[in-house]
Amino acid sequence: MKRFLLLLLILFTINISAQTDAETLKTIYTTSLTNGKSYEWLDYLSNQIGGRLSGSLNAEKAVAYTKEELEKLGLDKVWLQPVMVPKWVRGAPEYAYIETGPGKTTTVNICALGGSIATPYGGLKANVVEVQGIEELKKLGEANIKGKIVFYNRPMQADLIQTFEAYGGCVDQRYAGAMEAAKLGAVGVIVRSMNLRLDDFPHTGSMTYGDLPNSKRIPSAAISTNDAETLSTMLALDKNVKFFFSQSCRQLADVQSYNVIGEITGSQYPNEYIIVGGHLDSWDLGDGSHDDGAGVVQSMDVLRLLKESGIKPKRSIRVVLFMNEENGLRGATKYAEVAKQKGENHIFSLESDAGGFTPRGFSFDCSDAVFSKIESWKPLFKPYLIHYFEQGGSGADVGPLKTETNVLAGLRPDSQRYFDHHHAANDTFEHVNKRELELGAATMTALVYLFDTYGIAPISNSNQIKD
Amino acid sequence: MKRFLLLLLILFTINISAQTDAETLKTIYTTSLTNGKSYEWLDYLSNQIGGRLSGSLNAEKAVAYTKEELEKLGLDKVWLQPVMVPKWVRGAPEYAYIETGPGKTTTVNICALGGSIATPYGGLKANVVEVQGIEELKKLGEANIKGKIVFYNRPMQADLIQTFEAYGGCVDQRYAGAMEAAKLGAVGVIVRSMNLRLDDFPHTGSMTYGDLPNSKRIPSAAISTNDAETLSTMLALDKNVKFFFSQSCRQLADVQSYNVIGEITGSQYPNEYIIVGGHLDSWDLGDGSHDDGAGVVQSMDVLRLLKESGIKPKRSIRVVLFMNEENGLRGATKYAEVAKQKGENHIFSLESDAGGFTPRGFSFDCSDAVFSKIESWKPLFKPYLIHYFEQGGSGADVGPLKTETNVLAGLRPDSQRYFDHHHAANDTFEHVNKRELELGAATMTALVYLFDTYGIAPISNSNQIKD
Fold first, then answer.
1. What tens digit of pLDDT does each residue of B291-320 get?
2. What's the pLDDT at A460?
3. Which residues does chain B have within 8 Å of residue A387's beta carbon, measured at their own beta carbons?
4. Could you tell me if B357 and B413 are in contact, meaning their C-beta atoms sit under 8 angstroms apart?
5. B378 in contact with A at a CB cutoff of 8 Å?
């Protein structure tokens, strides 16, 4: 019986080797769409665990759950990589209103930005200065800012096709807005949510005080886009309207956490590593389904789909679930540090951290020569409507692994809906479509298969795709 | 003052003519994303009017509303084209259960298929035969079918990337299932909903009795995918489970309705027509936002966006809002009939009837020579992530306009979520994303602009794109 099974295994392996790359991709996509696990895992992560802010109990539950699930896959190794992470807690729900006169108040939706300090006990009320950004703030200067709440209201640019570009053009207000306003004597900061849609959800996200001493730090919060419009309108009618907000968030001491790692060890080049990953932590307002539960479960499924498709990798393939991308990047830093110490050759690192929407392709951080090789694979993806192969940034978590010769990449899903949900209470499971998630997992697996098969050496006759 | 305005107009026109095509497309997309009207129109159509089944009061409201809105745009002509349409009404809500024994019943979610007859007064209860399709039904033959309810349960094929293909592979069960089962003596038909997702929504849609006399017709309904799974499982456990359903739908006499048409008359070739359209009627369960409110408002916005972008068409551009696509195609038939009578040369007809999701491209029904010309325009669309230019079907409403020389096309949005909503109670406004809808309108406008500029004559030096 054992011999029979061995024979079957050999026949099966030969069969896979004889497949063209196009056939292997077909097997991968079919397996993901008919027998994928990513959606089931995401259901658990989102609905049984929920938001997974670094240092929280939920983050630790997510570590335990994903480790356990990876252990069920029969990988060669699964382990936890310890890393200390910051622990910021939101505290009691925030409260805010616009005051147009004595007793005349309009409640608005805000949330503290991640890393912000609390308002003074009982809240903070002050006049408001609306600005379109840090440049305008600096022009206004201390005379106009001192003692006031600064309201950053530059919206995301609607006519940019790729919404991440619009985000990049606005996020400085959220990240550095409080620091810059504090330097000019502001008492608080309110930032228009990074959201292209008009709705009632405030969107949190990381911010920094830079080198500001504790005594100079001021509280900052995001306001929903609808309420940003309301506040702006009220200010246009009367410069003297006041804004009140109250939040009780704080930064605690760092706590122990982990990156979760699983590996299929390579059969021919075990010291060449290919990794796929997403970040296990999320913000606390929603359940982090798109950011980045999707990337986590897709990355886990890449290793499973390789196995299910009968692919035996030549190189070592790892899934890395990074801890603390949102407010510290400690997991990614630690992973790269350890990889360097061990002299591990990470030839290709792929990140999925742009939502679980229909995949459109990848952006690649690599040399022109290697990119030409990668572009030669593009026709293989056409049946799956994957068309976007561009040189560009990859992702925050794989970034620290960059060398002169290796390749980093980021999955690029359709981005139109992403910022409707990003860092907000409506980043929840029901907004993820099963097929779109599975198509993403398949697309990542297909790319990993090709990198495993052909490596990153410049193109030659010996590594033409099999068609 | 008048002379000054004229001068301004001339300068503006010259300015537009001097633009490269790439610049014109940029203007179109920016206008749609920052100053589009499609989402506002859809909000009204969906939330103030709602489902618009042919012959219903809502359908007439939609005719009046869209005509009024088109009249506000300053087009050269806006008119109603009369057409008689069928009027099928659902009646009281359907009710159904699975009976596993005396008093042991499980309620399930069904809806009558469009065009079905009612069950007998008090409902219909019978044993069930599950089949995977019409072929299996025929194999089973009258002996196994007579007196029973036929349950068509072939699911949509999950591993097809384009969901419309999966729909095409299943919809015969819904359309012809009752007719074929009736021929073998079945008393009723239940069809698994055309939905790739497991959920509780039954999805309606058209069906036919062909030439069957009234006395031979049997009622047919769709069952939700979750309940189809339940019924199938129960049948596997016990072949003798019974199914009960009750529905009171009926077909009334035809009523008067209209296609709604608006036109910008061409400045150079007024007798060459380019049309864009969607269908104004919808099913009655949801509000028809994706099917086809999206196509209606996008088509309306094409004419508006041309005007807003300062484009003065050489050819006549029409928006046609077709009545009765869902259960008769009477509007499309009428439009094509009148066009033929009048000898109107419809060189290009574009339909949007695949949902308001992120546009990916178009499929074109045309000769290879013209397709080569169209393909030469593809690079212009790359900045907008439009990559899908393929020869293939166009759409039901523009189909009757086909000639040997002209071009038909269908907008091809991302199709992954479409059948989650198609013909079901959850085809509603909140499932349409504003940007995705606007990108679709812009993409249609861009293509119309190019057809207006270069016509459909085979490519020559004189009609190279301006870059």
1. 999 999 999 999 999 999 999 999 999 999
2. 61
3. 385, 387-388
4. yes
5. no
Chain B contact present for A105, CB below 8 A: no
Cβ neighbours for B282, distance < 8 A, ≥ 6 positions apart = B51, B52, B53, B288, B291, B292, B293, B326, B427
Cβ contacts of B196 on chain A, cutoff 8 Å:
435
Provide the pairing of β-strand B124-131 with B110-112: unpaired
Average pLDDT, rounded, for chain A: 95
Identify the pLDDT of residue A164. 98
- Give the residue among B262, B313, B309, B296 at the shortest CA–CA distance from B395: B296
Asked if A71 is an active-site residue, the reply is no
- The full DSSP string for A155-172 is PP-TT-SSHHHHHHTTHH
Residues of chain B with pLDDT under 50: 1, 8-15
Q: Which domains does chain A have, with CATH numbers?
A: 19-85+253-463 (3.40.630.10), 91-248 (3.50.30.30)
Q: What is the pLDDT of residue B172?
A: 98
Say yes or no for a CB contact (<8 Å) between B358 and A416: yes
CB A44 within 8 A of CB A402: no
Residue B458 has a pLDDT of 76
Q: Do B158 and A34 touch (CB under 8 A)?
A: yes
Residues of B in contact with A159 (CB under 8 A): 29-30, 33-34
Contact B197 A420 (CB under 8 A): no
Residue type, A227: D
The C-alpha angle with vertex A101 and arms to A100 and A107, in degrees rounded to 5, equals 50
* Contact residues, chain A, for B197 at CB < 8 Å: 434
Of A29, A33, A385, the CB nearest to B360: A385
Q: Exposure string (b/e) for B421-455, b if CB count within 10 Å is 16 or more?
A: bbbbbbbbbebbbbbbbbbbbbbbbbbbbbbbbbb
pTM listed for this prediction? 0.94
A441 pLDDT exceeds 50? Answer: yes
Closest approach of B48 to chain A, Cα-based (Å): 20
pLDDT in tens, B147-184: 999 999 999 999 999 999 999 999 999 999 999 999 99
ipTM of the complex, rounded to two decimals: 0.94
Cα gap A198→A227, rounded to integer Å:
9
Mean pLDDT of A163-181: 98
Chain B CB within 8 Å of residue A196 CB: yes
Give chain B positions within 8 Å (CB) of A383: 161
**CA dist., res. B183 & res. B176, Å (int):** 11
Residue showing tokens 């699964």: A78
- B33 at A interface, C-beta within 8 A: yes
- Write the CA distances from B418 to A436, B280, B356, integer angstroms: 12, 18, 9
Q: pLDDT per residue over A39-77, tens digit each?
A: 999 999 999 999 999 999 999 999 999 999 999 999 999
Instruction: Determine the Cα–Cα distance for residues B71 and B65; give it in Å rounded to an integer.
Output: 10
Pairing of strands B345-351, B407-413: parallel
Catalytic one of A130, A272, A325, A326: A325
**DSSP codes joined into one string, A66-85:** HHHHHHTTT-SEEEEEEEEE
Alpha-carbon distance A187 to A244, whole Å? 11
Closest CA to A288 of A187, A422, A178: A422
Q: SS3 string of B260-302?
A: EEEEECCCCEEEEEEEEEEECCCCCCCCCHHHHHHHHHHHHHH
CA dist B359 → B62, B167, B314, B390, B453 (Å): 25, 19, 26, 14, 22
Selected residues 412-451 of chain B with any CB under 8 Å from a CB in chain A: 414, 416-417, 420, 433-436, 439
The bridge status of strand A104-108 relative to strand A95-101 is antiparallel
